[in-house]
Amino acid sequence: MLNDDFVTKSKEPVKHYFDVGNIVITDKNGKTGFGIRVAINDNNGNVFKSGATTIDNGIVTNGFEVYDSASRPAESLATVLMHNLEYYHDWETNKLYMYYDGGNPGEVFEKIIVSTRGNCIGIGSNTVLDNVAVMQITSAHGIAAVAWDYIQRKDADEKLALDLQPLSKADQIRWMVTVEQVERKYEHQKSVIAKLAKFFAQHGIKMMILKGYGLSLNYPVPNHRQCSDIDIWLFEEKCAEDGSVERYGVQQKADKLLHEHYNIPIDEGKHHHTVFYIDGVMVENHYDFLNIHAHRSNRDIEDRLWQLTRQPMEVVEVDGAEVYLPSPDFHALFILRHSASHFAAERISLRHLLDWKFFVERYSAKIDWMGLFSFAEQMNMHKFLTSMNAICISKLGLHKACVPELGCDPVLVERVWNEILQPEFAEPRPRNVGYLRSWSYMFRRWWANRWKHRIVYRESLFSTFAVQLWSHMLKPKSLKL
């Protein structure tokens, strides 16, 4: 077990594990290795139980050896950790466990760095990074596989190029293993999407994908866009009096069908969507597109999104199943609000920016930019919108012709960019500490992020705080303790 005493020995003390993302290990000869995370693939989450299994990591390398970190029973810690430097993070008890057959890792290795979930560091101009650092940073931002594609490009834009050391064979293997894991997870998600779409189609229900997989189709290499859960909106259609197609959600009907046919438990403890698991993948089944209880302006944006569901949708085939994608105008507004909300509440990653960049590159000509900007201005999101556009142009290579000239504040743009790389409020969220300490943390984060609130929401700070307090009281499970 890695306890507080052990981590302190690493000369890089970590007070809170939060959600561990990466572990970098240095032996006494200066060689670098990596922890291999083992997670449980079970509908009930991060728990040991009969019948649960671990997620299949495939062939991996820890920097010292290569082995098959295959799926295995997750009945106890002894069955979960079986190979050197595999680790398991139990966030319920806030403990981190690692397997090593050569003795106590704290005594065997010279240094161990534990990286919690979130953004790692900020990158200034003329920064020289070694390959391990670049891999850690891009992994924390959910773009390790995309970064690998970029590094492999011989015609890389000099403006975006990093001064990297030549990739060693070990570095290449480690990075390629990470890319393979992203690809395997992506294919697994595709199979779940296809399974759901086919099941619902049998009952006359159509399935629209929000974010995630739909946005991956805009990437140069779609299966290198890292995905987490699956967001869906299930609907049926009818012709309106004016001859247009009218769509209406059937979330309750769909959840009932899933429960009846597969006995899948449905979590109704969240606002605007229910939650269930299919083959270990979390699915959020939306009945509202936004949480209308969190911000009053969300109701107006929700109404606008519902109007946009009447626009023609794009149909794509996923493993033989028909899946629907939102119209460009719908997705532009939805992505904007989703990113803005996460930015104001906590943080967004480089993946959010790349989602926007590649989406705009593909659909720019089909987006009603003046309509989007005008509505964003009414909702007080226009400064965030223009900042995202400016960052994508200046930092990520989006062509200026893809977006209209809407003006922006250069000082604000730079602050938003720095916030994405290195948040001003970086205190980790406490886990399993009860309501009082959780509320205290949320208040400190909310107060520190008030400048972000002012470029995302039209409501006052204190009005928002009162509304969100009531929102959590309505759905206590929405508060993560």
How would you describe this protein?
There is one protein chain. By secondary structure, the chain is α+β, with helices and mostly antiparallel strands. The chain is 41% helix and 17% strand. The chain is built from 17 helices and 17 strands. It has helices spanning 4-9, 77-80, 105-108, 131-140, 144-152, 169-201, 212-216, 251-262, 297-308, 328-345, 350-363, 369-378, 382-394, 410-421, 434-448, 450-453, 461-474; strands at residues 20-26, 32-34, 36-37, 40-41, 53-54, 58-61, 66-69, 86-90, 95-98, 111-116, 206-210, 230-239, 245-249, 273-278, 281-286, 314-318, 321-325. The strands form 6 sheets. Strands 11, 12, 13, 14 and 15 form a 5-stranded mixed sheet that branches. A 3-stranded antiparallel sheet has the order 2-1-10, with helices on one face. A hairpin with a 4-residue loop joins strand 6 (58-61) and strand 7. Helix 4 (131-140) packs across helix 5 (144-152), helix 10 runs antiparallel to helix 11 and helix 13 (382-394) crosses helix 14. It is globular and about 70 Å long. The model is unreliable at 1-18, 118-133 and 154-163 (pLDDT under 50).
